[in-house]
Amino acid sequence: MLISEIFYSIQGEGELTGVPSVFVRASGCNLRCVWCDTPYASWNPEGAPLSVEKIVTAVEAHVAARHVVLTGGEPMVAKEIRELAGELKKLDCHITIETAATVAPDGIACDLASLSPKLRNSTPDGRLDETWRRKHETLRWQPAVVRGWLDQYGYQLKFVVSKAEDVNEIETMLGQLGRSIPRAKVLLMPEGTTQEMLRARAGWLSALCKERGYRFAPRLHVELYGNKRGT
C-alpha cells in the first residue's frame, strides 16, 4: 500500500474527538475536492509503499493507543485495505474508517464508519481539467453505497459546510437515503484549514445546528496544532 504517513495524535473530528489514536493515511483518492486539506495524499499522492505487516508493526509501536483511524486520501481505494483492517482487528483495535462513501464496504472490519459524502461545494476548480471535474461530480454522491455502510456498521455522517445554504443540499441527500437517521448522527463541520477560517464560520454554523438539531463538529486538531502533517 502507498502510505503517506502514520502518526499518533488526538482525534480532532467527530464522535471520538479527543481520543488518542494512531492514524494511517493511505495515498490516493478517486475525488478531487477543491478544499482538500491533504493534497499530498489526494491531489498529488505521495508516500512510501509499505506491506500490511510493516503498517501493523508501526501501529503496534504506539502501545497506549487502542484506536486506529484509516484515512486518506480515500483509504477504500487502497488494494490491501481490507487485509490491513482485518489484521488490526486481530489486535483488538477500535477501527475508524474515514471515507467519502463512494466505495462499498464489502465486509471490511470497521467499528465506526465515518462517512463524509461530498457536497457541491467540493467541486474542483480550474486547476483541474474537465475530465476530473466530471469524474468528481459523478462519484461524489453514491446513496446506494452510503446505505451499504449505514446498514452494516456504527456510523457518523460528516458534512463539510461552506455556507448556510449547504444545509438544504444536506437535507435533500439525507432524504434520498431512505433511512431513519438520528439528527445527532449528522455532524456539520465548518470548511477551512486555519483557525481563523474555522472560527469565522463557527458562529453561524453552530446556530444552524441548534435550529435544525444537527451536531456541530469542530476541528480540534487544527485548533491544537494548526493544519500540518502528523497531527
**Contiguous runs where pLDDT drops below 50 for at least 5 residues:** none
Strand percentage: 15-25%
CATH architecture: Alpha-Beta Barrel
- Approximate helicity band: 25-40%
The CATH class is: Alpha Beta
Structural class: alpha/beta
Mean pLDDT: 95
Radius of gyration: 17 Å
Largest sheet: 9 strands, mixed
Placed side by side, the strands forming the largest sheet appear as 3-1-2-4-5-6-7-8-9
CATH superfamily: Aldolase class I
Order of helices and strands: EEEHEHEEHHEHEHEH
Task: Report, as a whole number of angstroms, the end-to-end distance.
Answer: 21 Å
- Number of separate structural domains: 1
The outline comes out as: globular
State the CATH topology. Answer: TIM Barrel
Count of alpha/pi helices = 7
The total of beta strands comes to 9
What does this molecule look like?
By secondary structure, the chain is of the alpha/beta class. It has a single domain (2-225), classed as Aldolase class I (TIM Barrel), CATH 3.20.20. The chain has 7 helices and 9 strands, in the order βββαβαββααβαβαβα. It has helices spanning 52-60, 81-90, 130-139, 143-150, 166-177, 195-212, 220-225; strands at 2-10, 20-26, 48-49, 67-71, 94-99, 112-115, 155-161, 186-190, 215-216. A 9-stranded mixed beta sheet has the order 3-1-2-4-5-6-7-8-9. Strand 7, helix 5 (166-177) and strand 8 (186-190) form a beta-alpha-beta unit. Helix 1 runs parallel beside helix 2. It is globular, with a radius of gyration of 17 Å.
